[in-house]
């Protein structure tokens, strides 16, 4: 592994395979191809809610941390949008109808452990937000088309218009990664945590696929 150059590029290269596995997972492909029934999409949205609740709780706790703080941006917070989506997909009693699957519970627990590891929190922040700012846009379009969802209903999670230009946002995000004050040991640890974050997310998707196939609820 090359150990000089931009850390953002090194992080991307080191986790490219894991990123690809999550992006090309059968569950994700079915969503993008319009082959996933709406209950499968709703189930995924429910699991996002539990993961992002954990992520944003930790983010608020680390808002003043010199390392993690620059990444904590309320404009990114997804929980309010997810709540709107869940109401659109499940109805006003959505909170009683959804619960975290075991893989999601494991994922959320790992995120909460990062309250004591600011660089680890950034690893999970990068994995989730940068992925949804980028690839999530394709899922939103596919879902709206496949399920005939009214504009913004059920897909508010993917609306990052408050950020302005997404290319500029991503460029600034990568600059913050490059500016992280981490020694080589800490950088390696953050790369490992990023890989774990992708793995945990992929396990959530795999479980959703099995549950959807068996008709289990979210």
Automatic annotation (TrEMBL):
Please indicate which superkingdom the organism of origin belongs to. Bacteria
Q: Which CDD domains match?
A: HemeO
Q: What Pfam families does UniProt report for this protein, alphabetically?
A: Heme_oxygenase
Asked if the Swiss-Prot or TrEMBL record annotates the protein with the keyword Metal-binding, the reply is yes
Q: Which UniProt keywords apply?
A: Heme, Iron, Metal-binding
The answer on whether this UniProt entry bears the keyword Iron reads yes
Membrane spanning segments where? none
Q: What is this protein called?
A: Biliverdin-producing heme oxygenase
Q: What is the species of this protein?
A: Nocardiopsis endophytica
């Amino acid at each position: 592994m090359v150990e000089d150059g931009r850390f953002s590029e090194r992080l991307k290269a080191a986790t490219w395979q894991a990123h690809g596995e999550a992006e090309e997972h059968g569950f994700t492909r079915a969503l993008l191809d319009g082959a996933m029934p709406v209950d499968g999409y709703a189930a995924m949205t429910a699991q996002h809610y539990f993961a992002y609740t954990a992520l944003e709780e930790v983010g608020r706790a680390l808002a003043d941390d010199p390392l993690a703080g620059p990444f904590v941006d309320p404009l990114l917070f997804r929980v309010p949008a997810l709540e709107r989506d869940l109401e659109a997909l499940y109805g006003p009693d959505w909170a009683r109808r959804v619960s975290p699957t075991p893989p999601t519970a494991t994922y959320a627990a790992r995120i909460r452990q990062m309250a004591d590891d600011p660089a680890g929190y950034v690893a999970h922040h990068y994995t989730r937000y940068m992925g949804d700012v980028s690839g999530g846009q394709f899922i939103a379009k596919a879902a709206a088309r496949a399920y005939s969802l009214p504009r913004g209903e059920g897909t508010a999670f993917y609306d990052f218009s408050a950020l302005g230009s997404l290319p500029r946002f991503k460029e600034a995000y990568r600059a913050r990664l490059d500016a992280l004050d981490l020694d080589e040991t800490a950088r390696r640890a953050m790369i490992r945590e990023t890989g774990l974050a992708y793995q945990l997310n992929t396990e959530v998707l795999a479980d959703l696929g099995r549950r959807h196939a068996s008709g289990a609820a979210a």
